């Protein structure tokens, strides 16, 4: 992945492919502890993102801002506002910089996490996407090397974080209505977060 707007656009195309490929998995996960629409909602959102990438902007931040506004306007449920907030906060952190650095990627991930926490009022252990994103940011910050190295570390940590949601009892979102019955299932938001970070990492490698 190049470190400019074109590279971010290419990464977003990869994300859209990954979301499409895992749509059924995310639907199944969400059907077990939610309303079953997470996979379809994300597919619709990132399909819309694809249609807007050619005019998304000429800086990484501008591209992420376009992604954010598209997701907010097209994705239903909680995912649209949460992912939209994540991308808009990351875009704001990057500002008008024309290229990414490992440090700016970490800062953007941190801003995304802070946005999700502020919007969803969730914390680590609540069985949400925060459980994947929090360790991802921590791992990224502890990693030195290239952008690919930083994102790979984030993706690895997010994968583990998503797996670690399986035994948890949900304390936020629709899954929290199930109480103890929510244990034993992976949180779909944590899984989709891990998938997105893996797509970014693969695009950067």
From TrEMBL:
* This protein's UniProt keywords: Kinase, Transferase
Q: Which Gene3D superfamilies match?
A: 1.25.40.340
Which GO terms fall under molecular function for this chain's record?
kinase activity
Which InterPro entries does the record cross-reference, listed alphabetically?
Answer: DhaK_L_YcgS (IPR012737), DhaL_dom (IPR004007), DhaL_dom_sf (IPR036117), Dihydroxyacetone_Kinase (IPR050861)
**Residues covered by the DhaL domain:** 6-202
Protein name according to UniProt: Dihydroxyacetone kinase subunit L
Species source reads: Kibdelosporangium philippinense
């Amino acid at each position: 992945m190049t470190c400019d707007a074109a590279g971010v656009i290419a990464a977003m195309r990869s994300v859209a492919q990954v979301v499409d490929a895992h749509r059924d998995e995310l639907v199944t996960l969400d059907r077990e502890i939610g309303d079953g629409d997470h996979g379809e909602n994300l597919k619709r959102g990132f399909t819309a993102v694809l249609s807007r990438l050619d005019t998304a902007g000429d800086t990484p931040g501008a591209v992420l801002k376009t992604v954010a506004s598209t997701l907010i306007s097209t994705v239903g449920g909680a995912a649209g506002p949460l992912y939209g907030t994540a991308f808009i906060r990351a875009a704001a952190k990057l500002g008008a910089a024309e290229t990414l650095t490992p440090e700016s990627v970490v800062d953007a991930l941190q801003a995304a996490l802070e946005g999700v926490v502020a919007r969803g009022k969730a914390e680590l252990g609540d069985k949400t996407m925060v459980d994947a994103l929090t360790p991802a940011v921590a791992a990224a910050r502890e990693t030195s090397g290239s952008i690919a190295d930083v994102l790979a570390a984030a993706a690895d940590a997010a994968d583990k974080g998503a797996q670690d949601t399986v035994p948890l009892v949900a304390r936020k979102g629709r899954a929290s209505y199930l109480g103890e019955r929510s244990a034993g299932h992976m949180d779909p938001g944590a899984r989709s977060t891990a998938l997105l970070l893996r797509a970014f990492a693969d695009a950067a490698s």
